[in-house]
Each structure stands twice: as C-alpha cells, then as structure tokens.
Amino acid sequence: MFLARRPSGLSNISRLCILHTVSWILSSRRARFSGGSDDATASSLCRLSDLFRPVRMDISRVILRALESGTCSESVELERLDVELDPFVVNLVVRGLSDSETAVRFYWWAESRPGFDHSQFAIAYIVSLLFVDGNFALLSEFLGTVRSQGVALHRSLYRILLSGYVRAGKFDSVIETFDEMVMSGCREFGIDYNRYIGVLIKNCCFDLVEKYYGMALSKGFCLTPFTYSRWISALCQSNSFELVEELLVDMDRFGCSPDIWACNIYIDYLCKQNRLHDALEMVEKMRGKGTSPDVVTYTTVVGCLCNNKRFSEAVGLWEEMVKMGLKPDVVACGALIFGLCKNSKVEEAFELASRMLSLNIELNVSIYNALISGFWRAGSIDKAYTIISFMRTNGCEPDVVTYNILLNHYCTIGMIEKAEKLITKMETSGVNPDRYSYNQLLKGLCKTHQLDKAFAFVSDHMEVGGFCDIVSCNILIDAFCKAKKDTLI
C-alpha cells in the first residue's frame, strides 16, 4: 500500500491535526504524572494510531458532506476543501458512499492529486459497490483503466471479482477472471481452485472441470472431499460416469472419501446398471472409510438384491440396517416387501411386515395392497381378507388399488353381484373408481355372458363418465364375436 506524498503547504485540516497532537501529548503527560492509580494511568494512555484516527475521520466526514451536498460540481467542491489525502482517508470516504458512480468519480479525483497513489482496498471497495449496484458497464470500464495504469490486482481482489460474477450469473466473466488471476502471477491457493471448480461443476462444464483439476494437481493442490463429492454426484446425475472411478482412486490416494450424498447417488447408478457386485463393494468401502451407510444406501441395495432374486441377502441387509439403529422408512420397507410379493414370496413378506409393525414402523396402503394382492395370487383368500380388516383397524383406509384387487378377484371367479355392489360402495364412499375398475366389471359381465347388461353399462355409465377407452371397446367386441361364433356353432 502506497502512502500519499505530503504537500509543502499546511491546510486547515493539517493545523487541526497539529493542535490535536499537542492536546494528546499534554493529556498523556498529565495522566502519567498524576497521583492516580496504575489502572487509571493505563486507561488514560492511548495508542499512537489513535492520535491520527479522529482527524482522519473528520477529514473523511468533510469530504462525504461535500460529495453529498450537490451544490456544485464535485471536483470544484472538493478543490475548495484544501484537505490532505492519504489512502486511509480515501478508503473511509469510499466505504461511506452508497452510490457507485459517485465513488468512481471520487476515486479518479483522488488519483489526480499530486503524488497520491491508491491502495488495493479502495479498488476493492469500489468493485464491491459496483457489484451491489449491478453497474457492470462501469465496472468493466473502471477495471480496464486500472489495468492500463499497470496496477497488479491482489489475490483478494480477484476473489471479490470471482464471487461477484458468480452471484450475478456472469459465467463467462468468471472463467475470464480466473484465467487472468492464474496468468497474473499472484499466488493461488487450493481454496481458489476448489471454489472455481465448484462453480464449473454446478454449471455441468465437465470438460473445463477436468482442465482446471489437472492444473490444480500439477501445482500440488487437491480438491476437498466436499468438492470431490459434488463432482461425483453431478457426473452420476448427468450420466457421465467415465471419470467417477478415477476420482475415487484419486480420493483414496489423497486419503479422503466422498460424503454420504455422493456415495448414495453413485450406488443408485450402479444398481440401475445392475452392477450389484460393484454396489455391494462400494458399501464395504464406505464402512472401511468411516462413512456409515444410511437408510437410503440400504434401501437402494435391498431393492437391487430383490430385483436379482437374492432375497435372503436382501432380508439380511435389512436386518443389519435395523441392528445398526437405523429406523427403516416406508420406502425401505416397501422395496423389500414389493420385491418379495412380486416373486411369490408373500409369506416371507408378511413375516417381515409383522416385524416392521413390532418396530413401530407404520405401513402405508401400498404395502398392504402388495400383501393383499400377493395372498390373492397365492390362493390364500382368507389371509387377503384378514389384511384388509387389519389395515382398517390400524387406521389405513383402502384406496382405489385395494378395491381394484377385490374387483379383479370377484370378476375372475364370476361373483358379479358382489363386484357391482363394490363399485357402488366405491362411488358412495369417496373412493372414485378409475378406468381399470370399470373395465374389470365390464370384463366380468362379458365373461358371465351378460352382454346386454355389459352394453348398457358401457353406453349408460362408462361413456357418460368418460371412462370408456380402447380397452373397453376391445372387451365388448371380443365378447360379441365369441357370442356370435357360439351361435353359429
């Protein structure tokens, strides 16, 4: 920081400074030779910097009043003040201004004073004010002039510029400013690369991320676990997985590991690609590096195990989750029960649901529906009815899916009267039947050769309600064709 050169003459403010100095010396001597206590003496003495601060504050207030008065041109008003400038005073003035254009004009006026040089602080204050005002045209002009004077920007000023451009969404300016900082020769730190690469990751500029990541490594910097984790997460979410394994190797080399968020996203990707072995291996690595799997981790892997019909391992992993003190949520419970029911293991699913209830885990209607459907497909009709009664007892009301399961059963076995009553019950109880509901009843009517009733149901009920679709037409056409064929035979 350069200080202003002292002018030959004394201004009114300079005389005030001398008077203040003499007063300060006399008061200090009186305090030193008084008969007071040591504490009193110590508190009476002040630091040398306090000698100049009040005068500088007075000067800055005088200048601010002149700038805010607006009685005549700013330069004329400032010339009349006859004040001595130093960087501290200028910084105080700039910090006290709320208008960026006024601050820039004052900066250039101070610059024109003989022998005066600004500090980096004044530039930083003005740049910050320009960002607050969103005056990017003036910011560009101001920085261009400063650079043309050969002023080398400090690292802290580059950080202010980068932060301001990021908040303003000026991504091209962010890249340009960072490149300029690197080329300027000012000292960079790992934190600069981490922040910058974080911005590139957020904007999915993975080619640039690789470029600057290589630069950071070449200078001996590595990313923080947080930045690595955000990069891995973004790569997985953008279906750009080629680099993920390389980054995990780099993290091992630097002794860090991704956070649970990144781990879960990566494991989800592996499971969707049916790379179950790699997913299980990643879970083991998490344990080894102190990142404990959470409910999301277990749920994802359990679902993949069920899809691969490895049910004993899925149940074992679920039990491990419970033993670790993690309370499975409905998604975690549903993944396992749905998988078991889908693969005709409804008894195991029912036992697991009972275990969940013993752990005070509230089952939702989707889980109950899976059990009801599973028992129906298995021919255990009584158990299906028991589940329906049980879910009502537990405060879980049947939804349209539950009723559709019942409708499907009634229509399949030819209990059309019960199916019709169930449709009526749905319509009066607030559970609106859907197209599937009506098509099931239509199919039941056709199956029991009640074609006239089926046709009337379509024309008087389904078409009026907007439920008739291509499936309905096909059911009716197929039934009439079969009836015609039977007549011919």
TrEMBL record:
InterPro entries assigned: PPR_P_subfamily (IPR050872), PPR_rpt (IPR002885), TPR-like_helical_dom_sf (IPR011990)
Keywords recorded for this protein, A-Z: Repeat, Transit peptide
Keyword Magnesium listed: no
Transmembrane helix keyword on record: no
Extent of the PPR repeats: 154-188, 224-258, 259-293, 294-328, 329-363, 364-398, 399-433, 434-469
Signal peptide: none
SUPFAM superfamilies listed in its UniProt record: TPR-like
Pfam families: PPR, PPR_1, PPR_2
PROSITE patterns in the cross-refs: PPR
Entry superkingdom: Eukaryota
Family listed: Belongs to the PPR family. P subfamily.
Designated name of the protein: Pentatricopeptide repeat-containing protein
Source species: Triticum turgidum subsp. durum
